[in-house]
Design a protein that fits this description.
A five-stranded parallel beta sheet has the order 7-6-5-8-9. It has a four-stranded parallel beta sheet with strand order 2-1-3-4. It has helices spanning 17-34, 59-70, 91-99, 115-120, 138-152, 170-181, 210-216, 238-245, 249-253, 275-278, 285-304, and strands spanning 48-53, 74-79, 105-110, 126-132, 159-163, 185-189, 205-207, 219-222, 260-262. It has 308 residues and is an alpha/beta fold. The chain has eleven helices and nine strands. It has two domains: 12-137 and 289-304, Rossmann fold; 138-285, Rossmann fold. The protein is globular. Helix 2 (59-70) links the parallel strand 1 (48-53) and strand 2.
Length: 308
Amino acid sequence: MKDLSVNNLLGIKYLKKNDIELIFKTAENFKNIINQPIKKVPSLRDITIANLFFENSTRTKLSFELAQKRLSADVINFSTSFSSVKKGETLLDTVNNILAMKVDIIVMRHPNPGASIFLSRNIDAKIINAGDGTHEHPTQALLDAFSIKEKYGQIKDKKIVIVGDILHSRVALSNIYCLKMLGAKVKVCGPSSLIPKHIDDLDVEHISNIEDALQWCDVANVLRIQLERQDVNYFPSLREYSMVYGINNELLSRLNKKITIMHPGPINRGVELSSDVADSNHSIILDQVENGVAIRMAVLYLLAGKIK
């Protein structure tokens, strides 16, 4: 397979296994390039990309922008705090005005689930979903799965537990879709109040005890508590959450094996992970960051190839 089956990256659930494998193979090539002295290639020299971030972002935005510059694309960065959105302009009007400047690809983060899908049905540019509300975050799931494959050589039959705020996490949903498609065994762990009611529909088991979850898994992908998305209290306090679900060296030392720790960032140190775990040799968090650039280069390159 030399071409993606999709014209946009809207979510993992729209991809096929072959698409993910193609993205991984392309990312491996780009990772080799960005670890050389000359890190830039002219692959997207004639392509213009607009980054539309309607929500705050540091890692994802920087990762996409670096990927675009490594590919020699022309880049436009759009921030809602300085835009006509503040004056009441609609999403479609904003994007159409940007497209009038001859933009080829739009990378968008938006607080509303389905915003990228809506956009893809109304404009001709290629769309990459950089996170839509609590729905999906496909490039994060791809880089997470790529990092697991890099660590273990394969994903099939690996045991992955996703720990933390599953209810509000777009990362969790995309990871579940991606990992299960690639043959991994996936479970979730966290307070019942932070587990979606439909989790059984995804064929994913909830483990309530963190030590049981870590004894079962090969990899723990730990999510932060998303207080900015919580309009009610889902647990008594961060201190209590940390005492019951926080991962520290003492907990890891009780396991009868060594596991891998992942985190999509930003880390609430001392809440979901202690610093000694985040910075330990259990952690591949910085590998995730590096792989994020390679994965996003691969996605941009493959979608640019579908521009007519």
